[in-house]
Design goal:
The complex is a heterodimer of chains A (about 625) and B (about 500).
Chain A (H helix, E strand, L loop, with lengths): L1 H17 L7 H21 L6 E3 L13 H10 L4 E3 L1 H24 L9 H17 L3 H17 L6 H32 L9 E2 L3 H18 L7 H8 L2 H27 E2 L2 H23 L4 H22 L2 H32 L15 H14 L6 H16 L5 H4 L1 H27 L15 H19 L1 H14 L10 H21 L25 H4 L1 H5 L1 H11 L5 H19 L4 H21 L1
Parallel strand pairs in A: 3-4
Antiparallel strand pairs in A: 1-2
Helix pairs in contact in A: 1-2, 1-5, 2-4, 2-5, 4-5, 4-10, 4-13, 4-18, 5-6, 5-10, 6-7, 7-8, 7-9, 8-10, 9-12, 10-12, 10-13, 11-12, 11-17, 12-13, 12-15, 12-17, 13-14, 13-15, 13-18, 13-19, 14-17, 14-18, 15-17, 15-18
Chain B lengths: L6 H16 L6 H23 L5 E4 L14 E4 L1 H24 L6 H20 L3 H19 L5 H32 L4 H10 L3 H18 L8 H8 L2 H27 L4 H23 L4 H28 L4 H36 L10 H4 L1 H14 L6 H15 L3 H26 L16 H16 L6 H16 L4 H6 L2
Antiparallel strand pairs in B: 1-2
Classes of the chains: A mainly alpha (about 625), B mainly alpha (about 500).
């Protein structure tokens, strides 16, 4: 019981306390934040000892005298505070606390003068506490409250120091805040129809239009947070301009965890979906996968590229959860965790690269593998994971999702009959992901090193420890997927299942490791000395700097393909951005209305009397 | 305790009288006296709230008893709703007066400023407390005439023009209100609200009542800046000195506009469906159009002024929905929810809109411009202004954990419960638009790159101004506690009860 309380209140209270520490004492703040996140991780682990069930903690009301105002207040607050401890929320809380620890460890070094955000650590801790609260609460209103604050901290964790970053921050909060507002509608309808706000106590059919509206309203919240098409547009902008630690913390891991967690709650726990809604979910899923990765392919800014991948991967989770079968759900949840791990790691390593070089464009980089070996190795592991290459964890979860889709195809509904579309597009998305990560890795780490990058060195250990741990987890989750991770961690979350496709991750990993080992042995036995290297033949000319072929050039072909070029062109102009469409509409309405305000007094007086006359006419007619 | 009621009117009026006389000889007298007077009003209000008896407190001026049940004295009535309004006026008024201490340093004629401020305060308190129609009108005129002068306080071309428009339109509205009052007097032969309520309840002449009501709605609607009667507000509120803008937007339009509508239409007239729908429709239209207009502005204070129209729309919509439900004998609890949402938003709006205007004043004080396009990067040089205005912006756009989130939540949920789905959707939409234009304000003013102007010259405003802004920012956070049952019963519920049990107002005063 107390664990529950500490996990939420401890980071929040510590965060508020940290506001009082002056900004100059950066190290003290950082270490304090680290200690607090370690403590909440400890409590999150202890949370597993609690039995599953609904908990209503006695909120401090024993601290105040009976009948006093504070007592009354806490009693009132307590009526909203119900918490649901089941295996899923425990697991999500544990992941949140683990990420908080890793990110605050990373931030110690990363948050320096270049990346300084006012009150970074307080916001970090507030985020940790409120995220845990979001995952644990059972009351929809309390959930909305926590959820909304997370949108706010997301906004506060990006520093608006120039035009572009201010724009990204503004867009982020507007989109997230709008989705929160829309969620109020859904929650209101649920309250009206069922009379309860308890997430666990709801089982609503999606038969009436009102309930479908409620479902869609909540879906908007989940999609915006997780960053699914077409509500994802804030994410790439945020990823590009925010400090890497902020991006790794919120949009890449916590928002994904919570967004998909909420998707699970609404799709599986609260509503019973009909065929049309399942179709909608699957459609959004594959669209998100394909469009996200297509946009990622043509990016030049590597953080923005990662941002689009953060969108694209959400599609798999939606696909998995949308299937609604135990296999699909397990795949979706497993992918959610895996994605949080490797995507968080990717942003942290991207932060390392940025920290070491100060460059933001892929074409300015190259050949850093030797200078930054740990970062390179970690990035490679993450890249292979996200592209779904065995034996890493991304493959394991995608494999589950593919299995789930095939399994889903056995069903009778018309959505089930379309299984080959879902499967085909999901696999295609995975292939394109690999293609774009080839670009990412080779663009940054391989190829010829540029002169101005000579000074780039590996970052300090404090900054590579967190990515290294995450990379290790990627490997462990991949290698032991079928023997340990899926049966012991993922199955308790929703339910057991068995699948047709045989996949023994341990065996396959051994096979892969053996084949790599053999390759190395052959390479070593074969006479290396006879192996000669030569610069590329360029017609006898000496190699000059402008003859470099940055890897981004190769991917231009995609953008120039005729059909795509039109689409990309329009996407550049933000034709498909729901945010810009909305802004345009509101602004034109405002412009049109402003024209009426001419400042001429007689016109205003006419409005006054006109209003009066119209009111009289209307009311006396009836 | 009821003996203390007249103090709410007397203290500011006496202060207004003393300031021009003594202030002439005594440096700084006007500032100290105003702050002390408003502080004492705040203390009195807190005392009234805490002592809160269920019954309305009555003070008969001159102590004249009713003759054969007909009240002849001037009544001052302090019931839950009045005390709630007094809390808004006196607290915001106190903070504004503290803020003005530093803000006014670059103006001459400070005596006039503070005297007018006290006069406005006295007028508003009088409106809120007055138990009869004619005094309500007189006090309203005191308040608005003081505000006409205060809008023109800068005596530049722009201010004078704004004040002129405000006077003409406000004058028309006052005439309409006076006309309505006269009609009522002609019909009921009494000016006492409670007495008139008793007579109107038995009256059969429906079209007469509707006709009168429309004149009053138009008149008070103009004071409350409901669209289409809002045209004076953007000019007046943006031209006034910033602390006065905070008073006008945060308090005045509520005390003489919304309060008067609530008092007359709930407690005097019998509730009628068509009038409730009219009020709700006016509120909804203001809510929607006001925010679209605000989105298009580049002048900070003009944007805030349009935003006031939109937020007043929220308040009126919330209260109007409750009125519709009550008039149709719907679910009492839903009506109470809608009304408490409206009142909650009213007190919240006073806090955050007051704060936003004070922020705008601080920005203007340091940078001498209100145009967002030429500002930028102020979060570094003015940290307190930046963080408080961030809080206020988030509060008004309904982002948790600030107070605006909860009041909007209550209004939206009440709309859904009452099956006003369209209004609920509009409220959400407008909350999004509000968020959008306040993010624009934040971005262009406090973020972005610093403007071309010399960055060293811009520094944080003096202590007195910071003090008011910080207190209001704390209020923006702290008022969210009003959602919890424990404290809601002390502050919000007495006011809601007055509105909900509308027909009990008259008997509790006249005794039958």
């Amino acid at each position: 019981m107390n664990e529950l309380f500490y996990i939420i209140v401890l980071p929040v209270a510590a965060g508020i306390l940290l506001f009082l520490v002056p900004e100059r004492a950066k190290w003290i703040k950082g270490i304090f934040a680290l200690v607090i996140s370690a403590a909440s991780l400890f409590f999150a682990i202890r949370l597993f000892r609690l039995p599953a069930g609904i908990v209503t903690p006695d909120l401090l009301s024993s601290w105040f005298a009976e009948g006093s105002l504070c007592h009354q207040l806490m009693k009132g607050a307590g009526s909203f505070a119900t918490f649901n401890i089941d295996s899923l929320s425990k697991f999500i809380t544990l992941s949140i606390c683990a990420f908080s620890l890793l990110v605050s460890l990373y931030s110690l070094r990363y948050i320096t003068k270049d990346h300084q955000i006012r009150n970074y650590y307080p916001y970090l801790l507030l985020t940790a506490g409120f995220s845990a609260g979001t995952a644990l609460t059972d009351n929809l209103l309390l959930f909305l409250f926590f959820w909304g604050i997370l949108g706010l901290t997301l906004y506060l964790l990006i520093r608006g120091h120039d035009e572009e970053s201010s724009d990204a921050a503004k867009k982020t909060l507007i989109m997230i805040g709008s989705s929160d507002g829309i969620m109020i509608l859904g929650i209101g309808i649920i309250w009206k129809i069922s009379g309860t706000l308890s997430i666990s106590g709801l089982t609503l059919p999606t038969s009436s239009p009102l309930l479908v509206t409620a479902f869609l309203a909540l879906l908007v919240g989940s999609f915006t947070k997780a960053g699914a098409f077409p509500l994802h547009t804030w994410l790439p902008d945020y990823a590009k301009k925010a400090p890497a630690s902020s991006t790794a913390y919120l949009p890449a891991s916590l928002d994904k965890l919570l967004g998909i967690y909420f998707l699970y709650r609404i799709c599986i726990d609260m509503f019973e979906l009909n065929q049309g809604l399942v179709f909608l979910l699957l459609l959004v899923g594959v669209l998100t996968i394909i469009l996200g990765v297509m946009m990622a392919l043509v990016q030049h800014n590597y953080k923005r590229l990662l941002g689009y991948h953060a969108v694209s991967q959400v599609g798999y989770m939606i696909l998995g959860l949308g299937l609604g079968t135990p296999l699909g759900i397990a795949g979706g949840l497993f992918h959610m965790v895996n994605n949080a791990i490797y995507k968080g790691g990717l942003f942290l390593t991207a932060g390392n690269v940025e920290h070491a070089t100060g460059k933001e464009e892929l074409s300015d980089l190259g050949g850093l593998s030797r200078a930054m070996p740990v970062t390179f190795a970690a990035t490679l592991v993450f890249a292979l994971s996200i592209s779904g290459v065995p034996p890493f964890n991304g493959f394991a979860s995608k494999w589950l999702i593919y299995q789930g889709i095939i399994d889903f195809g056995q069903g009778a509904g018309w959505t089930n009959q379309l299984w080959w579309i879902w499967l085909g597009l999901a696999v295609l998305g995975s292939a394109l992901t690999l293609a774009s990560f080839l670009k990412y890795c080779s663009g940054i780490f391989l190829g010829r090193k540029q002169k101005n990058l000579d000074k780039a060195r590996e970052v300090k250990p404090l900054m590579w420890i967190s990515p290294a741990i995450l990379a290790l987890v990627c490997i462990i989750f991949g290698v032991f997927a079928s023997s340990w991770v899926v049966p012991r961690i993922i199955m308790p979350l929703h339910g057991t299942f068995d699948y047709t496709g045989v996949w023994q991750s341990g065996t396959v990993s051994i096979l892969i490791a053996v084949s790599i080992l053999l390759g190395i042995i052959f390479y070593l036995i074969g006479n290396i000395k006879r192996f000669r290297t030569e610069d590329s033949f360029i017609g006898g000319e000496t190699f000059r700097e402008e003859m470099r072929y940055p890897v981004t050039e190769f991917y231009k072909t995609i953008g120039e393909f005729r059909f795509f070029s039109v689409l990309y062109h329009q996407a550049e102009k933000k034709w498909f951005d729901i945010y810009d469409i909305g802004r345009g509409m509101v602004l034109s309405a405002g412009k049109w209305l402003s024209r009426a305000h001419t400042g001429i007094l007689t016109a205003y007086a006419i409005w006054l009397f006109g209003g009066l006359v119209i009111l009289i006419l209307i009311l006396f007619k009836t | 305790m009821s003996q203390l009621i007249p103090l709410f009117v007397i203290i500011p009026l006496v202060a207004a009288f003393l300031i021009p006389i003594i202030g002439k000889f005594l440096e700084g007298f006007q500032k100290v006296l105003t702050s002390v007077a408003f502080l004492s009003l705040s203390v009195l209000t807190v005392y009234f709230i805490c002592a809160g008896t269920g019954e309305p407190l009555l003070y008969t001026v001159g102590g004249w008893e009713p003759v054969r049940g007909i009240p002849i004295a001037i009544y001052l009535v302090a019931d839950g709703l009045s005390i709630f309004m007094l809390a808004i006026t006196s607290v915001v008024g106190f903070l504004v007066s503290v803020y003005s201490i530093s803000y006014l340093n670059r103006f001459t004629a400070q005596n006039n400023f503070f005297a007018l401020l006290c006069l406005m305060m006295g007028g508003m308190n009088g409106v809120v407390l007055s138990g009869d129609l004619f005094n309500l009108f007189v006090f309203m005129e005191i308040a608005v005439i003081a505000s006409y002068a205060l809008v023109a306080f800068g005596i530049e071309k722009q201010e004078l023009e704004a004040s002129f428009k405000y006077q003409v339109l406000g004058g028309i509205a006052s005439v309409l209100i006076l006309f309505g009052v006269t009609m009522l007097y002609w019909k009921t032969k009494t000016l006492n609200i409670a007495d008139a309520g008793n007579i109107l309840r038995t009256s059969q002449d429906k079209s007469f009542v509707v006709f009168t009501q429309l004149f009053l709605i138009t008149g008070f609607g103009l004071k409350a800046a409901l669209i289409p009667f809002h045209a004076w507000l953007p000019d007046a509120h943006s031209s006034a000195p910033s602390p006065i803008s905070a008073m006008l937007s945060g308090v005045l339009i509520k005390a003489i506009g919304i309060y008067a509508i609530i008092r007359l239409f709930f407690n005097m007239f019998t509730l009628s469906d068509e009038m409730a729908v009219t009020i709700t429709a006016l509120g909804a239209v203001s809510m929607v159009l006001g925010s679209f207009l605000a989105m298009y502005q580049w002048d900070i204070k003009r944007m805030l002024a349009f935003s006031s129209i939109s937020q007043v729309g929220y308040i009126v919509t919330g209260i109007g929905m409750g009125m519709i439900i009550l008039a149709r004998n719907g679910d009492q609890r839903v009506a109470a929810l809608a009304i408490s949402g409206g009142l909650f938003h009213m007190i919240n709006h006073a806090a955050f809109k007051g704060l936003l205007f004070l922020n705008a004043g601080a920005i203007e004080h340091e940078t001498h411009t209100r145009n967002m396009k030429s500002l930028g990067g102020l979060s570094r040089s003015m940290p307190i202004t930046a963080s408080t205005s961030m809080g206020a912006s988030l509060a008004i756009s309904g982002v948790p954990p600030f107070n605006g989130f909860f009041s909007k939540l209550i209004i939206i949920i009440a709309a859904i419960q009452g099956k006003f789905y369209l209004l609920a959707a509009l409220a959400v939409l407008i909350s999004i638009v509000t968020l959008a234009y306040f993010m624009k304000f934040q971005k262009y003013t406090f973020f972005n790159r610093q403007g071309a102007r010399d960055r060293k010259k811009i520094k944080e405003v003096p202590f007195a101004m910071c003090f008011s802004m910080i207190v209001l920012a704390v209020l923006c956070l702290g008022l969210s506690l009003l959602i919890f049952p424990g404290i809601r019963e002390v502050v919000l519920d007495p006011a809601v009860r007055v509105i909900m049990n509308a027909s009990e107002y008259a008997p509790s005063i006249t005794g039958f």
